[in-house]
Amino acid sequence: MIDECLAVEFTVTGDDCPLAMASRKTNATVECEPPQLRADGNALLRFTAPADDALADALDADDRIRYLHRSRGGDRDTYRCLSKAPCVVHRLTDAGFMSETLSYRDGEERHTGAVVGNDVLQGVMAAAGDTVGVRLRRVYPVGPESAAAEARWDLTPAQAEAIRAALSMGYFAVPKEATAAEVAAAVGISKSAFLERLRRGQAGLFAQLFG
To answer: Looking at the structure, do residues 98 and 154 belong to the same domain, yes or no?
Structure first.
């Protein structure tokens, strides 16, 4: 039995796969599910992106993409296709990486997932570094979901508590279902303390999400 499981986030640059190139060409942010690798080496892709004809045209023009299907849905489109290009994530999977989310922005890939132990992590990083540029962004132990969220997003326990309480009580709903004073009372702190924790937590989250 292995006791250590690590959640991992890292970025990959220099990949020439279709999604990386299309995101670089069109400045679109593409959110992709982990590709499914077929026995013949082709990958089945499912991904979403803001509604944009330029992205669809760029993908359609790439001769490595086949059977491209685009479903329109409000301000985001969902794509499904077959890719003849090898995906970096498959080499990482072969090394022991369990992919959970994958996004492309301006040609850069951001991978999140898990590895079982530090030795496996070193192998994953070596596999990525053999062909593309890779930068480890964050590593933290997999544990209870609450602790994992705090570690992943660099939140203090107090900030995480304030955000969770605000979310569960409907503070972020439109229209609001709870006031700042009501959430603060539920947490057991003053309104000013609640708002400070909320702002600091949100600032940290937004900085990590948007850069």
So the answer is: no
